[in-house]
Each structure stands twice: as structure tokens, then as C-alpha cells.
Amino acid sequence: MCTLPDHDVLGGSSIQDIKHGEEIYNGQGEKSQVLGTWMRTWNGKVHRIHARGSLPITVTPEHRLLVLRGAKKRPLYGKTYRIQTKNKVRSIIRLTNDKWNDWDFEKTTVSKTPAALIRKGDYLAVPKLPETNPQETIPFGCHGRTQRHKTAKENVELNDSLAWLMGIYFAEGSVPKVLTNIQFSFNMNEQALAEKTKELVEQCFGIPSKIIRGDHALIVAVSCSYLAKWLHEQFGGFAHDKRVPKFVIENSRLWKEFVHGVWDGDGYQTYNGPNKNPVLGLNIATKQGAIAIFVLLTSLGIRSSIREYTQPEKAFGHGNKIYVIKVLTVRKEDSFYYQDKLWLKVRENTEQHYDGLVYDLNVPDKHTYVLNGLVSGNSEDFIALHAFKDYGYKTYVDTSVICPHILPFAVSNRGFEAVDAG
Question: What is the pTM of this model?
Fold first, then answer.
């Protein structure tokens, strides 16, 4: 059970960079610790599965994803009235009740299904994060360090103002490599946003800031190495390494204002389809950040889509990947909420050939993790399957650091080795 190295894990980074003991989020949106990481070579078929509104996921045939089958959309009930006009007859459908998003789950099944068996029309899961508020404040530690920062706060309150400001930093903020100052960059017509940002920096952190008017931009400049290091550690320094920190993901009261701040900074309105329906859009430079925003929107009950593009040759940053999130682009018949998850309809499952390294994780408790925004099974069954296949039922493997309920086997620096206990 493995996936390609360019897939990202919610709460971590690219799957190839996840380390033993790292904390990520499982398929229930809960924090779990990685107890095993696996890497092997693969030369053969892989399956590229794409659900409508999500990033595609490419895995080996035996890799399992959480799949729902059997959900049916109930029919629309109503009456048709024929109204005579001068030259034509119009039909008006009057619905007796709202059934536009009413689904029948009586014959629904949910299971971890191998990629090779996933069909067009199945549904894959996006997790809804649980509503939790574990912290009231977070330590900042700049108080009294210098005379200039004598008003700086020792602990920062987690509230709506901080959440919005952190969303603005995610969208518009940057920290240089020397980690001495912070800049928030705005267009010349965004004076109100610049003033609000300046005010909240001083309100939330107790640190002075100023607005610099350039030729083509407004800059909110903050000179504080402690704040610069903190923001760099939590969010990243520039657009290409931005991420959503765990203190945001784990505090449900911050979600709405954080997303609001991100959209105030980088959001835009466009139009979709022949009817020119308004759509809210957001461009994010990192997959890790885009997946986190996608899951936060899902957790807020907002259906969105996420797509990957490559910047065209004449565009700024040409050749780089960009991730576009749009709200109101997923059709209602292609998605629904069920069992605290958003289910997206599979549009295609295609076979490809791949020759290279593949990766997987072992996560305890729920035995799932979130891969490219979708709920994926982990490696426990792959290990058990191959231990039985290669060594038979008399194999005993020590699984104390991997998975307590399968056969024990010995783990060495070369990977895992089954040991015949006789």
C-alpha cells in the first residue's frame, strides 16, 4: 500500500519527508502520531484517481482509500403549472419541499477499498475536523526583551482578531531570511486593509508598526525579530513555503476568521459557466497550504474545489505550480456530507506505469491519514499481507512500534524482516 512521493499529508508535509514520531491528522481529523514510515521501489501499474473537486491521487493498486457506495439522490417532487402568455407557454416547477440535496443512505456502505477496485461513480472522503478549542493563548515571549518592545505581550490571546491577522499574513505577509522584520504587502487601493493590519499587529502583539507608501504598493512594516521568527516558524516566510499551523487547525473558533483573512488578502471573484455564475477564487502557491484551506472550508460546511495548475510561460513565476481553490464550483449532485465527512464523486480511475520510489505511513488508532485532502488507509494491512505471503502462518513479527494487532515481526535499519519463531 503506497503512494507517489509528491503527495502531501495534512498536518505534515510531502509524504516522503514525514518522520517517525511526527504528528499528523487521521481520517477523523484527529491528531495521531506516525509510528512507521515505509519506502520501497515500484515498477508497475499505479492508479490515478480523480474525484470531482479534489486533487488527483496516484497510488499502487493495493493501496486503500475510504470509499462510499450506494448513496442515492432522492427525486424532486413537485407540480408543473402551464401559464399561457401571448405567444408561448412557459412551465413553472413549484417544489412542494426542498429536496435538492436530500440523499438516501439506506443501502450505503463505507469501506477501505483497494485503488484497483475503485470505480467511476464511487465517492471519496474529505474529513471534517472536530470542533475543539484546546488553547486560550499561545506563548510569544517577546515581552520586555528590548526597550522598543517593552509593550510586547508575553502570551497572545487566540481570538477572532488574531485569526484574521494570521489569515492576512498567510496571504500577504513575508519574512526575509535574516528574520528581523515582517512585511504585509497591499495594492494601492487597499488602504483600509493596511490600516486594519497595522492596528491588529499592535493590538494582538503589542508591537508598533508603520505603513510605508511605495510607488506601486502599501507596505505594513513591523520591526521585531521575535515576531519574525515566530511567524516564520509557524507559517513560513514567503509564498512558496506557506502553511497553516496546527494551532489554527486545532482551534475551531479560529477557522472562520482565518479563512476570512486569507480571502481578504488574496481572494477574488470570477464567473463560471455560460450563465456567468459568481465564484469566489483563491490562488495558493503551496500544496500543503492549499490542502489545509480546502479541509478548513469543508469543516466550516463550505463546499469548494481545488485544482493544480502550472504557471504559463509569460506569467509571473512561470513554470511553478499554483493551487486554485474555488467556492460554489462543486455541483450538488457530486457531493454531500455524511458521517462527518464530505464525499466527492469519482470522475475517473486510470492506470499508468510508474518506475520509482513509493511511500506509506503507519498511523495508530483509526489507521488512516489525509493524503492530498482525501482519507487514505495506512500500511498495516500491507505488512500483514506480505508477512503471511512470504513466510506463512508460523511467522512472528514484533509490532510494538508499528501496529499491536497484527503478527509480530522484527524491525531493523534495513526495513522490516519477518522472523520464524519455530
Answer: 0.82
